[in-house]
Amino acid sequence: PPSLNLLTLNGLVASDEVLIPIQCEYYSLEGLGQILEIIDLINNNLGRQIKVAGGLLTMYDKREKLSREVAREVRTHFPHKVFDTEIPRSVSLAEAPSFGKPIILHDPNSQGAKAYERLAKEIIELELRI
Predict the structure, then answer these.
(1) Dihedral sign, CA of 63, 120, 26, 111?
(2) Which residue segments constitute the domains of the chain, with CATH numbers given?
(3) Residues 6+ apart with CB under 8 A from 56
(4) How crowded is the C-beta side of 43, counted as CA atoms within 13 Å?
(5) CA–CA distance, 9 with 21 (Å, rounded to integer)
(6) Secondary-structure breakdown of the chain: helix, strand, coil percentages, each rounded to the nearest 5
(7) Confidence band (pLDDT; 50, 70, 90) for 5?
(8) What digits encode the pLDDT tens for the residues 62-82?
């Protein structure tokens, strides 16, 4: 999360498993380290066993060098699974909330909607293997 407030912390404490979205931007790598440290602190000090389902690369633009570098760094150094699906940077994804709709209803044929469908299938396959 961009900032760790009490609501986020309580959400983590109440969770059994988390999916960590990672924007393909430089400062996201710092935030990723912080959230993993916080999950470890919760697990070690509060008797929880929060599982990290994986990292999800978001706002990915294969045309941008920074996106590709962040994706490579995350895939190389993230100690948990990184989902194969990458959520693209997309106008449709950005505008869907302003219409009060999820992307699958706002623009079902967009690259963003298709990416979230792939992610859903990937998560289902992962959960079925457990």
Answers:
(1) positive
(2) 1-89 (3.40.50.300), 90-130 (no CATH)
(3) 19, 20, 21, 22, 82, 83, 85, 87, 119
(4) 13
(5) 16
(6) 55, 20, 25
(7) confident
(8) 999 999 999 999 999 898 899
Report how far residue 107's alpha carbon sits from residue 96's, in angstroms, rounded to the nearest whole number. 8
Binned at pLDDT 50, 70 and 90, residue 54 comes out as: very high
Structural contact between residues 88 and 54, judged by C-beta atoms closer than 8 angstroms: no
Beta strand residue intervals within 1-130, DSSP E = 17-23, 51-60, 82-88
10 Å CB burial of residue 127 (0-12, 13-18, 19+) is exposed
CA distance to 5, 77, 88, 96, per residue, from 62 (Å): 32, 20, 8, 22
Phi-psi region of 59 (alpha: psi -120 to 50; beta: other; left: phi over 0): left
